[in-house]
Amino acid sequence: MNLKTKRYLFYILPPFLYAGxxxxxxSISHYPEVLPRVFCFDKVIHFIEYYIFGCLTMRAFVDSSxxxxxxxxxxxxxxxxxxxxxxxxxxxxxxxxxxxTVYDVIFDSLGVVLAAFTYRFAVQRxxxxxxxxxxxxxx
Length: 139
Known about the structure:
The chain is an all-alpha fold. It is 77% helix and 0% strand. It has helices at 3-26, 41-62, 67-71, 73-92, 102-125, 127-138.
């Protein structure tokens, strides 16, 4: 596998696929149960969902061959994540049975910000992250 294909498949494509999953989940009209609105399980899900999105986005920027992208990874990750969260909430406002909330955007943003600041630590310190990255590098 050549380097360009490898970079695309393992670094650039995952955040786009994950963003698509977020979009699809946001398009579901009704969930099976009603959850309380603030500081509940729903907000934890938003946080985790966007933490993962932030890690995937950060990973793509860190590996970028474009100098501007690889030098400003944290700022770009936060920018992309927050604006995608805002766009996702806006999209939800058009889905029957769903609505947009500022609290969801806040928890989305917190997840992305934490991901941007902890990504390098996680890759260096967490064994499973090192194993995954090493296997990708060997392909």
